[in-house]
Amino acid sequence: MTKQELKDRHNTIKPYIHRTPVLTSRLLNEISGTTLFFKCENFQRMGAFKMRGAASAISKLSEAQKSKGVVTHSSGNFAQALSLAALSLGVKAYIVMPSNAPQVKKDAVKGYKGEIIECPPTLEDREQAADLIQKEKGATFIHPSDNLDVILGQGTAALELLEDHSDLEYILTPVGGGGLIAGTALAAHFYGNNCKVIGGEPFEVDDAYRSLQSGKIETNDTINTIADGLKTQLGDINFPIIQKHVSEIIRVEEQEIINAMRLIWERMKIIIEPSCAVPFAALLREKEKFKHKKVGIILSGGNVDLGNLPF
User: Fold this and answer.
1) Which domains does the chain have, with CATH numbers?
2) CA dihedral over 49, 50, 52, 53, signed as positive or negative
3) Between 20 and 30 A from 180 (CA), which of 134, 147, 162, 197?
4) How many Cα atoms sit within 13 Å of 253 on the Cβ side?
């Protein structure tokens, strides 16, 4: 991975993504005691940063691979991202979704012309169903977060942020499967000026925090968090990048996530999902660390179930 590879990837996916705005808030600066720059991936196509990684991965396939389609298993944003990216690039998308996935997410996938294959809600069942489609259709499997092309795509959000604000001292992202923070860490390494990358993670699913402590990929016994996008774990490809380039991970309580989410809704008048509020919650939890610093926060997505808000 090189600086040029990341730049080339950005140029490749530009026709398929939005260059999302960077917003500021004087009031949130006062509350946090720092200068904040919010990269609004909640305004990305399909409502989340994952559009970048999906477009990146599909664009790297050969014509022969594209002709047979792509497959992934996801109950959330990546299901929508891969469907829309595939539609944009003229490729068939097969999406394995657990039977208990929210209907609103299934409807979104169908809206983007993705073909849904339902399975029982266990990781094993999801993987088996995806394997079967690979064998039967010859489709290429694209992992939501543990795929180098996906990671490079996700890193383009931070690349754009650093192009707009080259003097950032920190960039904060949520940590779930690890694709966004790994890509962000690469972008900061290549394009930042001594810019540190820090992850935010719920105490309820702190596998990435524990993985950095132990030096091996840890799992979660429970996934009792409002941040439903962060229930996945790190992978073999993104974990070494995170070990090398991520400074630390700050853990937050559930109520801190809700408070941070509400603050952004109320003060910035924008919609973000709970997972997206986690890095801002982390910054508020450890204000002293960031005092008088210039801090970028990747607002990862805005796909909220409006009938099930936490406030």
Assistant:
1) 3-47+148-299 (3.40.50.1100), 51-141 (3.40.50.1100)
2) positive
3) 134
4) 6
The pLDDT value recorded for residue 81 is: 97
Exposed e or buried b per residue across 280-293, where buried means at least 16 C-beta atoms within 10 angstroms of its C-beta: bbbbbeeeeebeeb
Whether 75 has a pLDDT exceeding 90, the answer reads no
For residues 103, 110, 142, 89, the Cα torsion angle rounded to the nearest 10 degrees is -150
Catalytic position from the list 25, 32, 39, 50: 50
**Per-residue 3-state assignment (H helix, E strand, C coil) for 112-168:** CCCEEEEECCCHHHHHHHHHHHHHHHCCEECCCCCCHHHHHHHHHHHHHHHHHCCCC
User: Alpha-carbon distance 98 to 119, whole Å?
Assistant: 5
Task: Please measure the distance between the N-terminal and C-terminal CA atoms of the chain and give it in whole angstroms.
Answer: 42
Query: Could you identify the residue written with the tokens 């088996």?
Result: 128
50 is catalytic: yes
Q: Is the pLDDT of residue 216 over 90?
A: yes
Q: How far apart are CA 54 and CA 60, in angstroms?
A: 10
Which pLDDT score, from 0 to 100, does residue 122 have?
Answer: 83
Catalytic residue, chosen from 32, 59, 75, 211, is 75
Q: Is the dihedral of CA 275, 277, 279, 284 positive or negative?
A: negative
**Torsion sign across C-alpha atoms 285, 298, 207, 303:** positive
> Residue 295 in contact with residue 35, Cβ under 8 Å?
yes
What are the structure tokens assigned to 257, written together? 């996530």
Residue 225: closest CA among 261, 199, 257, 198: 257
Closest C-alpha to 43, from 9, 17, 10, 24: 17
Kind plus residue range of the DSSP H or E element containing 52: helix 50-59
